Amino acid sequence: MVLRSHQDIINDDLFNDFLQEGGRSESRRRGVCVAMKSFLRFLKEEKGFDFTPSQVVDYLEKEREGDSKSRTPERLWREFFSWMKPLDLARGTKRIKGVDVRSFLEYHDIRFRSGTKLPSWLRGDPRRDDAREQIIRIPEIKKLLVVQSGGDSLRFRAMLLCQLQAGFDVKTLRELKIGDVKSIDNAEPPFMIDLVRTKTNVKFRAFLGRDAMDAIMNYLKARRVGRYECAKCGTHGRVWRARCSNGHCNAPVISYYLPIDYDDPLFVTHGGGRGKDVEESYRTWLRMAAVQSGLMSEKEMEKCSRNPYAPHKIRAAFNEILRDARMPGEYREVLMAHGDKYRGAYNKFSAKKLKEIYIEFMGHLSVTEDPRLPGMEMDLEDALRRIDQLEKEKEFLEDDQIERILEELYKRRPDVKKFVEDE
Hey, where are the domains in the chain? Predict the structure, then answer.
């Protein structure tokens, strides 16, 4: 079965007229196009109609001309929701798709009967919506970080820590380039990046703590693409290796890594599957991680009309953690790139001043270090408790990270090292 492409749908005259109406953003237009493609797929699979958007309008107009009381639009709309119900999509996504399709039809005078409502399973019920009641702090973030999800774990952990420690929205994550972090290997925390937030068109300076820096370096190390060639037998391959993969040869080979293109997106990998969207994959991973980590059961998640651990909730956690730590609101506004109608977030404070403020509160956003201000005294009981906690976190920490944390701990409490060795 051949389904119509996005470009075919956009080129449809009636659909294009609807798309241009109302000054929709580019991302919103893509969403409307995806909704129409889903509706056309439903008509093809369930009704056998291989329609374009214009043909859908013509068909429904003829139905109404033949019978002014025809309820075909309402019936098809309800059946569209029934078709989407078993699909692995968020409830909010299903609701928006249905609303977009109805908006298109009503724009072309296919009116729905008064009282036509969303299915009951999609109507918002505040008593069942726990999305706003979830409080995300460092303990919840740690549980999300432990979840394994195959090859994408490193990428999603890096995205999660960037959101936690820099307050990025998910669009900004998508637009980060490898070149933005090219000097991160030799940098001391916090690492500063100059960016523009697309939503508010505001220039701003973001800072990454040690956890996010380590996660990005580990992710980029795993993402590097290697090649090898054997001079003896001519065997070559797409991985880095020391010896030839040919069992009859097994000679030393020349291995090398391909150079990194600094203009490539940091988190959006090319060739990762047709139509694969890192934003949607990240949202799905957060939802899955919340269930697998025990933060919510699958039944509790299904009751929520929105994911309580969606990317915007992680961004909100950045603001709330700093607010609880008593960071002044004007600095939080600038770090989150909220719009300022007078001077803009970029010019409100100098880079030096922002960095000083961030360093002062950086410990509160850490998932691996003691959440106290640098240099603050630590008693023996706190130090030993931190070492016990470190033992539990070993499964998702690199060896060099553990060594660095212990080194800092021993500097602040030299007697702890002797105490641990005696034990």
Answer: 6-122, 134-223+261-348, 380-422
Residue 21 or 36, more confident: 36
Whether residue 160 is predicted with pLDDT greater than 90 in this model: the reply is: yes
226-251 pLDDT per residue, tens? 676 777 787 776 665 667 777 777 77
Taking Cα atoms as reference points, which of 210, 163, 204 lies closest to residue 187? Answer: 210
22-77 tens-digit pLDDT: 667 777 888 889 899 999 999 988 888 888 899 999 988 888 776 666 678 888 99
Closest CA to 38 of 77, 80, 86: 80
Q: What are the backbone dihedrals phi and psi of residue 135, each rounded to the nearest 5 degrees, phi first?
A: -110, 120
CA–CA separation, 399 and 372 (whole Å): 23
DSSP percent split of the chain into helix, strand, coil, nearest 5 = 55, 5, 35
Contact 36, 15 (CB under 8 A): yes
**Among the listed residues 207, 204, 173, the one whose alpha carbon sits nearest the alpha carbon of residue 190:** 207
> Rounded to whole angstroms, how far apart are CA atoms 423 and 410?
16
In whole angstroms, what is the distance from residue 111 CA to residue 238 CA? Answer: 57
Strands 236-237 vs 254-257: parallel, antiparallel or unpaired: unpaired
* Pairing verdict, β 191-197 and 202-208: antiparallel
Contact 165, 208 (CB under 8 A): yes
| 134-223+261-348 has CATH 1.10.443.10 classification | yes
Residues 6+ apart with CB under 8 A from 207: 165, 166, 190, 191, 192, 193, 335, 354, 355, 358, 362
Instruction: Name the amino acid, one letter, at 68.
Output: S
Least Cα distance to 189 among 157, 213, 219, 215 occurs for 213
Minimal CA–CA distance to 95: which of 124, 56, 70, 138?
124
Distances (CA, A) of 394 to 164, 222, 264, 387, 390: 20, 19, 32, 11, 6
Q: Which residues contact 298 (CB under 8 A, 6 or more apart)?
A: 291
What does the pLDDT look like over 191-237, one tens digit per residue? 999 998 887 788 889 999 999 998 898 888 777 766 767 777 877 76
Interior/surface letters 233-243, b for 16+ CB within 10 angstroms, e for the rest: eebebeeeeee
- Is the pLDDT at 167 greater than 90? The verdict is yes
Q: Is the pLDDT of residue 163 over 90?
A: yes
